[in-house]
Amino acid sequence: MSLERTADLWWKNAIIYCLDVETFYDSDGDGIGDFAGLTRCVDYLAGIGVNCIWLMPFYPSPNRDDGYDLTDHYAIDERLGTFGDFTEFMRTARDRGIRVIADLVVNHTSSDHPWFQSSRSDRNSRYRDYYVWRDEIPEDGPEGVVFPGEQEGVWTWDDAAGQYYHHRFMHHQPDLNVANAEVRDEIRKVIGFWLAQGLSGFRVDAVPFFLETEGIAEEMEIAPHDYFRNLCEFLTRRTGEAIMLGEVNVAPDQLAPFFGDEDGDELQMLFNFPGMQGLYLGLARKDAQPFVAALLSLPQAPPECQWASFVRNHDELTLDKLSDDERQEVFDAFGPEEDMQIYGRGLRRRLPPMLAGDSDRIRLVYSLMFAMPGTPTIFYGEEIGMGENLAVEGRRSVRTPMQWTDEPSAGFSTADPDQLRRPLPEGAYGPANVNVRAQRNDRDSLLTWFERVIRQRRQTPEIGWGEWKIVDTDARGLVVIRYDWQDRTLVTVHNLAAEAAKADLDVSDVEWTVARDLLGDTAIEPTGDGRLVIEVAGHGFHWLRLNKPGQRLTP
Ligand code: NOJ
User: Is the CB of 398 under 6 A from ligand 1?
Assistant: First the structure.
């Protein structure tokens, strides 16, 4: 495939940036971010090299789950602006070469949704079967709750309805009934609606739960994955470039069906949850093995599909697939206090405080995120090393306002700090010490480094497109990934350990003259037998492109 043609499958090699409109930039001083504010920040995002924005839910909501509890799928939360403001944002993003995807939340609605209100209050309502009602709690259903400590079960009695309703998440988030063809039509309509507003696809919330047939199996006239395949087909029929990026945190050997068949006829993208969890265990142990094992456990992504690589997202940093002992190791290393942990399985911290602000290690982790197989996905504020505010309840500790300046309200808003949507962190990670303005003019800042690495990542299609494999080394801390794409070979080396290590790599099947570091000025010639030997500093990293005889690549 030529470099030009790769542009059609833009998600294979994009830079995704996740943000919540309400915590990004407040244009009118009410303490809540809005679309007009976000529009002003589009050039900032374009400037750092982002080419896809993922918007967290911006729909009307009572906000009991930060917008993942919708009351209207076809509108904008009025606190965030008007539809006109949304459209101006979309137009500006598109003009700067940035695609926009948004959360698609169709597993459930808010219990305040008019559909649910009608459903519960009238057995003859046309919305009655939009939800899953039962006279009794089924005995054989799954009992695991998603939010232990916050959620009591997955069935709740409703007096008005005189029945129990099913909810995978909180009791105020009743599950939609996908066995009902009208619900399926409605979901299609929602997708079609937002595509018509210019979205390039969706981050699909809670996919395995959406496809779960708990309580509705006997009524489901179409197999869940067949239904999902139809939905994905519908998406690309409406908009050829549109994608669905699925939140699917299941065991690695159960991931493949979510890509669909071997050509990939379901989700184009899946988050690499195993890689993320293996990364933290590897960091805690200063050992490459857990991360490498996680990468090797992944199914092969079909040719047009891609992993979304990430270091943290807006939820708890889940460690649910590690064993109890492994999880404890990560807790001990990065979140020993109970208040830093949540649901017994995750951390509610951002990376820099977890690494005690060690800038070499922070850069190592992000270099690895950009260099691992997949499309990097940044959570807002990561590029400046924002910290969390543990005083903010639950998972929201990492969803504090974006820190633009050193002013008391971080340049996020003209409102007083105590009027903000969420309180900012104080101290070392407060706006006085961590903000965009200061870092923009500092050539050694994390932001400047991110800009440089993103630019290089965009110029390194091998990572998004190439075939990858792990290259063996004897050094415990080294992660070495080799990519081959067309006539190119790239070898990325990351040292998770604090001690320097020697990478002595067998790449003798390639004829090469020099390996140039794309992130530095190292240039290495092959040993007599064609090996690549490099001394890697503790927490050091290199992206080495092997130049082949006669090969001319853009720098
Ligand atoms: C997954 C989202 O990431 C999370 O934030 C939300 O609470 C649940 N789905 C329920 O929508």
Answer: no
Residue 378 to residue 350: CA distance in whole angstroms: 12
Query: What is the spatial distance between Cα 481 and Cα 463, in angstroms, rounded to a whole number?
Result: 10
The pLDDT tens digits of the residues spanning 274-330 come to 999 999 999 999 999 999 999 999 999 999 999 999 999 999 999 999 999 999 999
- Mean pLDDT, to the nearest integer, of 469-489? 96
Question: What is the torsional sign of CA 156, 162, 166, 169?
Answer: negative
Probe target for ligand 1 pocket from 205, 245, 318, 320, with the most ligand atoms within 8 Å of CB: 205
Q: Which residue has the higher pLDDT, 215 or 543?
A: 543
Contact 430, 335 (CB under 8 A): no
Distance CA 73, CA 199 (A): 14
Quote the CA–CA distance of 520 and 523 in Å, as a whole number. Answer: 9
For ligand 1, the distance from its centroid to the CA atom of residue 378, given in whole angstroms, is 17
d(CA 2, CA 142): 48
**Mean pLDDT, residues 87-106:** 98
Nearest alpha carbon to residue 283 among 225, 362, 348: 362
**pLDDT tens digits, 162-181:** 999 999 999 999 999 999 99
Q: Which tokens sit at 293?
A: 């094992």
How far is the first Cα of the chain from the last one, in angstroms, to the nearest whole number?
21
Is residue 201 a contact partner of residue 235, using CB atoms and an 8 Å limit?
yes
| Contact between 45 and 53 (Cβ < 8 Å) | yes
Give the distance (Å) from ligand 1 centre to CA of residue 147.
Answer: 10
Is residue 545 pLDDT above 90, yes or no?
yes
User: Looking at this protein, which amino acid is placed at residue 484?
Assistant: D
The structure tokens listed for 69 are 């509890």
CB under 8 Å to 303, separation ≥6 — which residues? 263, 264
